[in-house]
């Protein structure tokens, strides 16, 4: 596809961590991106906010729809499409192309639509895809996430080689997992695009996708490698942005690679603010400097088809499932099966074109993390030197929240349970508040290692979070790093053992022990703590539901991506300069939180990362 400057990308996600993942994936030297947190469909002023601010800008919407009723989720997608063309713009009510428009208006608003879904098919996948397909728009679905060992074979999602429906990935859900991608779509008509077709020539793959679109069937694509996803994106957009893409963060990365190369090929200049060093932006091409060459050379000299790495990724810190190469077939013949995709040769040790499996380039004894990722100037990009500007949100002006959700006097049910006090720290910068709202067992070890480094740990009692009264009270944020997690269950009185794994029920479950109610209580506690602190607070938020509820409580509605600390751990900045890192609950190795904190504050804890 000739990605002309008039074209843009609209990405729609069902939760905040997914939206952040997409924003980081598509951000590059030529593509700026931003995340907008949408509330109820039709919110005043949202349509104007969706208009791109810069040439080549990608707008990523968090619809917060994963645990809404299916009908509401579908309407949220329709509304997002309608708002993208607020004056009609050659689009029908569902956002589908209006072929009767000959005025050229639709050309000026040529938009690639990407729908981000969970790689494990959680959420309202069927309802949202049905809304995308209204009006006859072709839909191409590729949920594979190779970097996390999540692939699609014969139309079935496999995680670490195990079919989704045979594993425990859905243990927190109220319903069993689907046995296939087609089953997840309910009664929607589908057409399977097997791996042999994906890895054949582009004309062959394009013919199969066109046939599915003509028959109004959702094209479900097998994929095991990034090269497979690159081929799917290249063929889907070969005729222009008419087909709508649906997939996980893996597909978003492929779209980012495609758009970056297309813009480079058309000579579009780098967008303001998209150049310079970032944390270690492994989720978008050319984001680590003005030139950002890959293993094979500069993006400017590459052909429009996306390159594929054929060497193994050294270590996957973004996925608990991966223990070696990202996915079976990564070093296989996928790159050569699609002739238009040139392959980088040799092992990939710092992959700047896909989410790196090595985490944030953890330094060894010979140097600090700052030196490992580019020196002191990196921390300016991370917002360390950002002024403590004031603004309307509680994140910048803490007094606002105190009036309605002020801290309550500590009690048996509302006072946080601290671990042993950490050793004193000489750190005097902005505090980092780490909020762990995930039910994933891996979070227990992640918190333990962060506390080992000197972080203060506060465990919030579930009874207090579920109560309708004042919010749970956190101690003053005087430590450099404070980590908050769920504490003892109301059914188990007394203090919780250190690092106890407390299950977080699915937000679909019934009251009173609903996950959503717990997360709302957690967000209220965070809001009160931030409001009581005199100055700005940086946040690390695990789990998309937790991240969204906390930022809603703090009145944050827009975020700009800075980079990725590791796969899925996206560093963003609020309009007034605060740092926010979001990460899906299921992502990250045992050092994930440690790496995130070190990236934000390289000297904030007593113990330096050496692993």
TrEMBL record:
<keyword id="KW-0119">Carbohydrate metabolism</keyword>
<feature type="compositionally biased region" description="Low complexity">
    <location>
        <begin position="96"/>
        <end position="107"/>
    </location>
</feature>
<feature type="region of interest" description="Disordered">
    <location>
        <begin position="268"/>
        <end position="366"/>
    </location>
</feature>
<dbReference type="InterPro" id="IPR010737">
    <property type="entry name" value="4-carb_acid_sugar_kinase_N"/>
</dbReference>
<keyword id="KW-0418">Kinase</keyword>
<keyword id="KW-0067">ATP-binding</keyword>
<dbReference type="InterPro" id="IPR037051">
    <property type="entry name" value="4-carb_acid_sugar_kinase_N_sf"/>
</dbReference>
<dbReference type="GO" id="GO:0005524">
    <property type="term" value="F:ATP binding"/>
</dbReference>
<keyword id="KW-0808">Transferase</keyword>
<keyword id="KW-0547">Nucleotide-binding</keyword>
<feature type="domain" description="Four-carbon acid sugar kinase nucleotide binding">
    <location>
        <begin position="433"/>
        <end position="593"/>
    </location>
</feature>
<feature type="compositionally biased region" description="Low complexity">
    <location>
        <begin position="404"/>
        <end position="419"/>
    </location>
</feature>
<feature type="domain" description="Four-carbon acid sugar kinase N-terminal">
    <location>
        <begin position="9"/>
        <end position="254"/>
    </location>
</feature>
<dbReference type="Pfam" id="PF17042">
    <property type="entry name" value="NBD_C"/>
</dbReference>
<feature type="region of interest" description="Disordered">
    <location>
        <begin position="84"/>
        <end position="107"/>
    </location>
</feature>
<dbReference type="Pfam" id="PF07005">
    <property type="entry name" value="SBD_N"/>
</dbReference>
<dbReference type="InterPro" id="IPR042213">
    <property type="entry name" value="NBD_C_sf"/>
</dbReference>
<feature type="region of interest" description="Disordered">
    <location>
        <begin position="404"/>
        <end position="426"/>
    </location>
</feature>
<dbReference type="GO" id="GO:0016301">
    <property type="term" value="F:kinase activity"/>
</dbReference>
<comment type="similarity">
    <text>Belongs to the four-carbon acid sugar kinase family.</text>
</comment>
<dbReference type="InterPro" id="IPR031475">
    <property type="entry name" value="NBD_C"/>
</dbReference>
<protein>
    <submittedName>
        <fullName>Four-carbon acid sugar kinase family protein</fullName>
    </submittedName>
</protein>
<feature type="compositionally biased region" description="Low complexity">
    <location>
        <begin position="281"/>
        <end position="366"/>
    </location>
</feature>
């Amino acid at each position: 596809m000739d990605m002309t400057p008039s074209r843009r990308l609209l990405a729609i996600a069902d939760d905040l961590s997914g939206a952040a993942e997409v924003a980081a994936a598509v951000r590059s030297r030529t593509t700026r991106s931003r995340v907008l947190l949408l509330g109820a469909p039709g919110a005043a002023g949202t349509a104007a906010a969706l208009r791109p601010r810069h040439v080549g800008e990608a707008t990523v919407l968090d619809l917060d729809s994963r645990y809404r009723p299916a009908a509401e989720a579908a309407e949220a997608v329709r509304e997002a499409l309608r708002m993208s063309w607020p004056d009609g713009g050659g689009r029908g009510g569902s956002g589908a192309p209006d072929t009767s428009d000959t005025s050229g208006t639709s050309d000026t608003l040529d938009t690639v639509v990407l729908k981000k879904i969970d790689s494990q098919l959680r959420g309202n996948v069927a309802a949202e895809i049905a809304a995308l397909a209204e009006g006859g728009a072709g839909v191409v679905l590729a949920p594979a996430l190779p970097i996390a060992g999540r692939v699609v074979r014969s139309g079935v999602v496999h995680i670490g080689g195990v079919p989704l429906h045979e594993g425990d990935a859905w243990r927190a859900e109220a319903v069993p997992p689907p046995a296939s991608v087609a089953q997840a779509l309910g009664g929607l008509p589908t057409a399977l695009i097997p791996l042999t077709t994906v890895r054949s020539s582009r004309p062959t793959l394009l013919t199969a996708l066109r046939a599915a679109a003509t028959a109004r069937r959702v094209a479900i694509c097998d994929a095991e490698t990034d090269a497979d996803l690159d081929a799917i994106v290249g063929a889907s957009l070969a005729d222009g942005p008419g087909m709508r893409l649906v997939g996980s963060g893996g597909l978003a990365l492929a779209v980012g690679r495609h758009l970056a190369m297309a813009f480079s090929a058309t000579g579009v200049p780098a967008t303001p603010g998209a150049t310079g060093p970032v944390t270690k932006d492994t989720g978008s091409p050319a984001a680590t400097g003005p030139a950002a060459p890959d293993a094979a050379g500069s993006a400017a000299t590459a052909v429009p088809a996306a390159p594929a790495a054929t060497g193994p990724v050294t270590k996957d810190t973004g996925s608990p499932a991966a223990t070696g190469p990202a996915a079976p077939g990564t070093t296989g013949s996928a790159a050569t099966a699609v002739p238009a995709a040139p392959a980088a040769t040799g092992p990939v040790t710092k992959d700047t074109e896909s989410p790196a499996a090595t985490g944030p380039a953890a330094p060894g004894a010979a140097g600090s993390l700052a030196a490992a990722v580019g020196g002191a100037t990196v921390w300016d990009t991370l917002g360390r030197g950002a002024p403590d500007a004031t603004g309307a949100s509680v994140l910048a002006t803490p007094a606002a929240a105190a009036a309605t959700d002020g801290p309550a006097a500590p009690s048996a049910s509302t006072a946080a349970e601290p671990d042993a006090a950490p050793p004193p720290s000489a750190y005097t910068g902005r505090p980092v508040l780490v909020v762990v709202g995930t039910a994933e067992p891996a979070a227990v070890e992640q918190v333990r290692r962060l506390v080992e480094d000197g972080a203060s740990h506060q465990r919030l009692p579930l009874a207090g979070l579920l109560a309708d009264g004042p919010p749970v009270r956190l101690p003053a944020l005087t430590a450099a790093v404070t980590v908050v997690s769920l504490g003892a269950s109301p059914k188990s009185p007394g203090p919780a053992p250190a690092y106890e794994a407390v299950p977080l029920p699915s937000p679909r479950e019934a009251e009173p022990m609903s996950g959503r109610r717990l997360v709302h209580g957690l967000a209220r506690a965070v809001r009160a703590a931030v409001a009581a602190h005199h100055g700005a607070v940086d946040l690390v938020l695990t789990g998309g539901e937790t991240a969204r509820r906390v930022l809603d409580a703090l009145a944050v509605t827009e975020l700009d991506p800075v980079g990725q600390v590791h796969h899925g751990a996206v560093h963003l900045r609020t309009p007034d300069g605060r740092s926010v890192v979001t990460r899906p609950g299921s992502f990250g190795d045992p050092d994930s939180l440690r790496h995130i904190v070190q990236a934000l504050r390289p000297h904030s804890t007593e113990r330096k990362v050496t692993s």
